[in-house]
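Re: export button greyed out
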Amino acid sequence: MTTAKIPILEVQKLTKYFGGLAAVKDVSFEVRAGQIFGFIGPNGAGKTTLFSMIAGAVRPSAGKIRSRGVEITGVSPFRLVKAGIARTHQIVRPFREMTVLENVQVAAHFGRKPVRSPSAAKERAMQVLVSVGLDALADNPASILSVGNQKRLEIARALATTPDLLLCDEICGGLTHSETAAMLQLLRRIRDGGMTVMYVEHDVKAITAVCDRILVLNYGRKLAEGTPDHIQNDPAVIEAYLGTKAAGRS
Amino acid sequence: MSATSATLPARRMAGWAMTALPWILLAILAILPLLVPSPNFTRLLFMTFLWTTTSIAWNLLGGFAGQVSFGFAVFYGAGAYTTALLMNAGVNPLFAFLAAGLTAALVSLIVGLPAFRLRGPYFAIATIGISEAVRVVMTNLSFTGGASGYRILEHRPFRQLEHYYTALLLAAIAFAISWKIAHSKFGLGLKAIRQDEDAAADLGVNPYTYKLAAHALAAALTGMAGGVFARYAAFIHPGGVFGFHTSVHILLMPVIGGIGTVWGPVLGGFVFGIVEEEIVASFPEIHLLLYGLLLIVIILFEPGGILGGLRKLVRRFRDHR
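Workaround output, generated via the alternate export path:
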């Protein structure tokens, strides 16, 4: 029972310098299991840097990241997958010479619960494709998918590694309104299935619509944290997004 | 609807044909030297099998995993010298060949551990540097005879067919390994690395160990081919087995045949093995230049190699029917 109390992700005073510039400075927060946890912030606020550090793609200058009490700071991505943390990419990176099914099959083979036989991996991959609604396109080359479907494929691949924590990087970027709505619905379904989601997005509307808890970054520092309602009414957040004048008027 | 149901049995037939093809080919090649008892022809096929083995081996790393190496002469030479030294020490040839494979695999780790820290063209350049460094060292190593080479003294009568079947068996093993990998988890991991190494790592593939494993396997096969060659030639020298042209030949075959496929390197190996004899005999000075031109033509007009071109033709024929 005590395990439920340990956060699935715990970030302590995470800092990243690029030269003399602090892209992220002393950011701390916790993500509880079963939530959709979002980051927002104006351009250059350090969202992507923070995300990349958690995903193991960028090594922090200082600070600690723990998952369920185990330190994962600076751990390489393929080991994070084995620890139950998987990511998607903002700029989609499908294996273009493979079919949609094969793309997901790679994840089933090498994920947290690795499958050895190709037929078993295909079977699991197909289940995941059904759950994200790409099963009809399974035998198509990944390169011909539309942007929306490529983003879905990113999620399908990450899900096929059977993570506890799914890191989503701008999965609604470049999507139409209806595609965005469908994507957010998918995220909710993933959460309701028991997975924890960490979600970075430029689009404030999308984030506030789907997240249980939101962290606001500004100039690399934590500006605010709380529920969507709380964030939307926080004067500091309104100021950061709209400027002082607008904040004063509200 | 009727069109798809008609093509289904045809497709299944094609599938059987593809499974039967290696066995039919093996059977033909096994009886061919008995039907055509010409030492020259047997020698040509013997060399073709060795080239094909190295071609298949290179493709495991360069084709499946996409790591282009210009340094396979290092493994060919390491295998050749290991076999030569062991056979002169009285070791049975078979064990000498296995030791050659093992030595080459170990050498591949020494090369790969630092070189796989580099990516793409930088990896390729590093393999050229290492390969040349090894050649220079071997040229100056006195106990293997240095530049003047090393002779193998075998106290058994020379039987060409024994060499022939050894090479055929080795090529068959290489093909079986390649075929198995192409249809396995390991192969899919390598293909993922070729297409996007970082995305592969984000799905749990460890690119570094996978590349090292493919490299070691390729090196072992190449080393054994070098060993079989050394025993046949009974004389090896660094300028030959460790020469840069050896690395280029090994790389050229899968590119000619069709990189990243199972049959491409076999096709390339056979075309190269047979054509090479003619080219070297007719144009000894400029044969490397001709290969360079061939490489440029293939990369410009048909990056899929002979196999890629054939597939295109088949598709066009099917569409026009």
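The interface with chain A takes residues 183-185, 188-189, 191-192, 195-196, 198-207 of chain B (CB under 8 Å). The button fix ships in the next patch.
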